[in-house]
UniProtKB/TrEMBL annotation:
Residue ranges constituting the Acyltransferase domain according to the UniProt record: 55-357
UniProt keyword annotation of Cell membrane present: no
Pfam families the UniProt entry points to: Acyl_transf_3 (PF01757)
Ranges of compositional bias, category Pro residues: 1-19
Recorded GO MF terms: acyltransferase activity, transferring groups other than amino-acyl groups
PANTHER family hit by this protein: MEMBRANE-BOUND ACYLTRANSFERASE YKRP-RELATED
UniProt keyword rRNA-binding, yes or no: no
Stretches assigned to coiled coil: none
Compositional bias per record (Basic and acidic residues), positions renumbered to this chain: 36-53
The protein, known as: Acyltransferase 3 domain-containing protein
Record-annotated membrane-spanning stretches: 119-138, 150-168, 180-198, 232-252, 272-297, 304-322, 342-359
Region called Disordered, residue ranges: 1-53
């Protein structure tokens, strides 16, 4: 009377094929690879998607974050030394542009897919909320500043980078559509320096003035980095950096260091409006020249600090608490720190501390704040779950 029921699964629709993850961006698991937990993705030399990590970029990120920490340690001391002020200005010309450029390079394949948005939320938005709250409470109670409010629209101290990175990545699909993304981003940055009415919401001045470096990173390809890593470029970078240090020493008493922070407009610094666009172009050119020299010196082989380079966000976000504690408690007021020997000591100390903060033990302790998994907060993709279940079953049969 009735037709025989078909075998289970015969009329089911086939599962969609797994997409290949993009470079530097976590994606679905590749075939025959069974996920075993977070420790599997955190092995040295391996990305979350199973692809081998490029040692060059981990090395570059580590060296850049060391320069960031050293620059912060120089701030309370540079007024007593023209040499240190000159070195500080040179480092601030390119260290954050290099960091932002690398962030843009690894955001090339970002789109508005659920997997990418989930990673953006857990890897950028949630850490921003956590550390914005933590820094505000640290300022309120450790510095006895009851007027410091917790506000997610006014980034405090180092959290501006997470806020900016969130916005930059959301705009990535737009930059992939326009014909001349870098010139357009430069025009936006130049216009931002003209007016002082943008305000401090989302630290918009920094967000817009650093935007060209992020957009440039989106447009770069691996061959561009191979180009600046040639032996001839490495040799030419020596006189370039030497010249930059001489110019920095000469300009130290003549130039307003605030330009390097890119957090104010030209009128906000008391300068004519037209100096904003001019300085934007000049600093972009100088930053790119020194960044190319910096990349030419970054080793491409695996070194003792390559694995540490994978945890630079930990060092960036955590070292600020020690830097602020030193400021609040007057540690930098010690007279011997304002001598050449003291400056060298603070430089080495800053490099050592930020290195320790990027290591695996520190990552394990603070992973809940910097890289929370938060699987409970998102809907599960049935197709992805079925695909992973089939992979596990296949692995058991193969074993």
């Amino acid at each position: 009377m009735f037709d025989a029921a078909p075998p289970p699964g015969q009329n089911r629709r086939p599962l969609p094929p797994a997409q290949s993850p993009a470079d530097g961006v976590p994606g679905p698991h590749t075939p025959m690879r069974v996920p075993r937990g977070p420790e599997k993705a955190d092995r040295p030399g391996e990305q979350r998607d199973g692809k081998p990590r490029d040692a060059f970029f981990d090395n570059a990120k580590y060296l850049a974050i060391v320069l960031v920490a050293m620059g912060h340690s120089w701030e309370p001391l540079k007024s007593d030394s023209r040499i240190l002020q000159g070195v500080y200005d040179v480092v601030y010309t390119f260290h954050m542009p290099a960091f932002v450029l690398i962030s843009g390079y690894f955001s090339r394949s970002f789109d508005l897919s659920p997997a990418r948005l989930k990673r953006l939320i857990t890897g950028v938005a949630v850490p921003y909320v956590v550390f914005e709250t933590a820094y505000s409470l640290f300022e309120r109670y450790f510095n006895h500043n009851p007027g410091q409010d917790i506000s997610l629209v006014y980034p405090f101290y180092l959290t501006w980078f997470l806020c900016a990175l969130f916005v930059w990545r959301l705009t990535t699909p737009i930059w992939r559509l326009v014909r001349w993304p870098v010139p357009l981003a430069l025009v936006i940055a130049m216009l931002a320096t003209v007016t002082s009415h943008i305000g401090d919401v989302l630290n918009m001045q920094r967000l817009l003035q650093f935007l060209p470096y992020f957009v440039l990173g989106l447009t770069l390809k691996p061959e561009h980095f191979r180009l600046v890593r040639r032996h001839s470029v490495r040799i030419l970078s020596v006189p370039v950096f030497a010249t930059a240090l001489l110019v920095g020493w000469w300009a130290a008493p003549r130039m307003n260091t605030v330009w390097f922070y890119r957090r104010d407009s030209a009128p906000g610094m008391g300068a004519p409006w037209w100096t904003g666009p001019v300085m934007t172009l000049a600093m972009f050119g100088c930053a790119m020249l020194l960044t190319a020299c910096f990349f030419s010196w970054v080793p491409g082989r695996t070194t003792w600090f390559t694995a540490i380079g994978a945890g630079t966000l930990y060092g960036y976000l955590l070292h600020g608490f020690l830097r602020k504690a030193g400021e609040y408690r007057g540690w930098f007021d010690e007279a011997w720190l304002h001598t050449p020997l003291g400056e060298v000591f603070m430089t080495v100390l800053a490099a050592g501390v930020v290195t320790l903060l990027c290591t695996k033990p520190v990552q394990r302790v603070f992973r809940f704040a910097v890289e929370p998994r938060m699987e409970w907060a998102f809907k599960q993709d049935p197709a992805q779950l079925a695909r992973e279940r089939r992979l596990r079953e296949h692995a058991k049969v193969s074993a």
